[in-house]
Amino acid sequence: MCAASGIDGGKDVGVRGVVIAAIENRILASSANEIVDVRGKLVLPGLLHTHAHVYQYVSGRFGLNARWVVHRIARSL
Questions:
Q1: Shortest CA distance to 34 belongs to which of 11, 14, 53?
Q2: DSSP line for 8-62
Q3: What is the pTM of this model?
Q4: What are phi and psi of 19, to 5 degrees?
Q5: How far apart are the C-alpha atoms of 21 and 38, rounded to whole Å?
Q6: Rounded to 5 degrees, what angle do the CA atoms 58, 74, 12 make?
Q7: Helix (H, G, I), strand (E, B) or coil at 65
Q8: Cα separation of 75 and 30, whole Å?
Q9: Are 22 and 13 in contact (CB under 8 A)?
């Protein structure tokens, strides 16, 4: 949930240029120039990359397997 706006749950996000123009339960596909399906992903406006500890077994259960992380990042580019 976004504490600032109170928005929670899956939403459609409309972008005009580089600015978020709308956040709605449903934006008609016919009103879009391009559709990007990001279901199951995090949309983080203004952030280039999230923070991750990429060293498996060093920090207990919080470390990630480096090959898995590189694979996931490469697929998202």
A1: 14
A2: -S--EEEEETTEEEEEES---GGG-S-----TTS---TT-S-------TTTSGGG
A3: 0.52
A4: -115, 135
A5: 17
A6: 105
A7: coil
A8: 27
A9: yes
Report the distance separating Cα 7 and Cα 13, nearest Å: 12
Query: Which pair of structure tokens corresponds to residue 57?
Result: 């077994």
- What is the tens place of the pLDDT at every residue in 18-34? 788 888 999 998 988 99
**Separation between Cα atoms, residue 24 and residue 18, nearest integer Å:** 18
What's the confidence (pLDDT) of residue 28?
92
Per the listing, tokens 């879009």 go with 32
Structure tokens that stand for 33 in this block: 């120039």
H or E element at residue 66: helix 66-76
